[in-house]
Amino acid sequence: MTNRFTSGNAALALKVIGVVLILSFLLDFLILLLPFQPTDRGWQINLSTALVDRGIVPMVGLGSLLIGYWIDGSNDGSPKGIDLRFPAFILSSVLGLIFLLIFPLHLNNVNQAKAQTVSQISQEADQAETQLKNQLNQFQAQLNTDQGKAQLEQLRAQAKAQFSDLLKDDQKYKQALENPQLPQSQKDLLKKFKANPQELDKFIAQQTDPQGLANQRLTQIRQRKEDAEKQARDNAWKSGLRIGMSSLLLSIGYIIIGWTGLRGGGALQTGGRKAAAR
After folding, report:
1. What are phi and psi of 89, to 5 degrees?
2. CB 3.0-4.6 Å disulfide test: which of 142, 156, 181, 193 passes with 200?
3. Model pTM above 0.85
């Protein structure tokens, strides 16, 4: 008697847990639909991701619910209260179909979003290159004038004077090398200039050469473009693999649970009627 009472309480608890998990998922599903934007690709991707991430919750709920009914059946052969097994199997089949549709839909959306992102990155990089070339042409046009040439020579002379003063003063030079806030690359340059003063002239010429600076800037733009495109492709690949495979596995699980239960529904009903007759 005590064992039957204990198993009855366990069955009730499992049923309650199962119903709560299933209802919480359905509530989350309704909330995720808001605001309803079925034509927005980003909305579809976010919805698919959220559903798949929560997809195991109703499966646990279904398992808990069915185990509760199994415990009831092992006690006296008939379920107590309202029999929710048939609606649960229907829900499982519907969820299996939903997750099966998410698999190709999400892959297609991710691929299209990736293509759009890569195209946008390419356009922004092209605009930056065009702007850089225009600025270079304007600057070179200014340097072709006597005033521009004089300003450039003055700038080079000031830079050389500042470095020369630092290199000639051993105390300032030592303080600069011991300064923890000064990057190591700049310290290496100072050592290089100290060992060979001609390297200072080459460095200043390179840093004040418009074409050289433009080439460096162009290399940075193209490198950032490649990094951004690679990141977009990696994110799309990871999302497609994780969400796509998870949705496929969830669909298989739900379809097996739903179709197996529906196919055996007649046997359950027959067994229930026999138990009731006894």
Report:
1. -70, -35
2. 193
3. no
Residues 6 or more apart whose CB falls under 8 angstroms from that of 13 comprise 68
Tokens representing 142 are 């200014």
Per-residue b or e along 129-167, where b marks 16 or more CB atoms closer than 10 Å to that residue's CB: beebeeebeebeeeeeeeeeeeebeeeeeeeeeebeeeb
Q: Which amino acid is at 146?
A: D
Helices then strands, counting H and E runs in the chain, come out as 10, 0
Q: Is the bond leading into 35 cis (omega within 30 degrees of zero)?
A: yes
Q: How confident is the model at residue 274 (pLDDT cuts 50, 70, 90)?
A: very low
Q: What count of residues does the chain have?
A: 278
CA separation (Å) from 166 to 163, 173, 230, 259? 5, 6, 43, 83
Burial of 227 (0-12, 13-18, 19+ CB in 10 A): exposed
Q: Which residues contact 126 (CB under 8 A, 6 or more apart)?
A: none
57/189 Cα distance (integer angstroms): 60
Cα 29 to Cα 11: distance, rounded to the nearest angstrom: 27
Q: Measured between alpha carbons, how far is 113 from 242 in angstroms, rounded to an integer?
A: 16
Contact 210, 143 (CB under 8 A): yes
- Mean pLDDT calculated for residue range 257-275: 64
